[in-house]
Amino acid sequence: MSIAPSPTVTLDPAAPDDAPLLANLLELYVHDLSAAFQIDVGADGRFGYDKLPLYWSEPGRRFAFLIHCAGKLAGFAFATRGSPASDDPDAFDFAEFFVLRRYRRAGVGGVAATMLWDRFPERTWVVRVSMGNRDALPFWDRVVRSYTGGAYTAAERPGQPHAWQIFTLRSGARTTPQA
């Protein structure tokens, strides 16, 4: 299955004014992750995401995007320059990625990931997926394989509470045409 950009999916840079919207989406995202990780809500009933303000205070290092489908909010993508899974300080990392359930399995996530890679061409990218996140593993394997035509590396790294699958790829290095 090839993943081709669609005019109905957009990847828009998030602005500081979008922080409350992203904070709300992050609650849904972390709630989903709590199935794979032992994450508890705070005393206020929220999970929180302490790193959100950094996406505007470190503009050359952190990049936040909103995903829309047919003009409706569908999720978000966070990327960082520098990855905890790479010694290369310039490698880009898919720090966080979330698609609302309504848009999952409809190609929105794959198109959004492709758009993000293409936004930063000729870069090394690292995608880290917890082995405990069983829905994410086949998604990322399929999307990375399709985007690169198989020109990527995958490795397993230890982690807690689960090991990590690490995909490393080069954006713009597709070896097969995208249909």
Element layout with pairings:
Elements: E1 9-13, H1 19-33, H2 54-57, E2 62-69, E3 72-81, E4 92-99, H3 108-119, E5 124-130, H4 136-148, E6 153-157, E7 164-170
Parallel strand pairs: 4-5
Antiparallel strand pairs: 1-2, 2-3, 3-4, 5-7, 6-7
Number of helices: 4
- What's the mean pLDDT score? 90
- Main beta sheet: 7 strands, mixed
Structural class: alpha+beta
SS elements, strand count: 7
Q: Give the % helix.
A: 10-25%
Q: State the strand order across the main sheet.
A: 1-2-3-4-5-7-6
End-to-end separation in angstroms reads 9 Å
Order of helices and strands: EHHEEEHEHEE
Strand content: 25-35%
Radius of gyration: 16 Å
Low-confidence stretches: 175-179
Outline type: globular
Features:
seven-stranded mixed sheet, single chain, alpha+beta, 179 residues, disordered C terminus, 4 helices
Give an account of the 3D structure.
By secondary structure, the protein is α+β, with helices and mostly antiparallel strands. A hairpin with a 6-residue loop joins strand 6 (153-157) and strand 7 (164-170). The chain has a seven-stranded mixed sheet, with helices on both faces. The longest helix is centred in the first third of the chain and has 15 residues, at 19-33. It has helices at residues 19-33, 54-57, 108-119, 136-148; strands spanning 9-13, 62-69, 72-81, 92-99, 124-130, 153-157, 164-170.
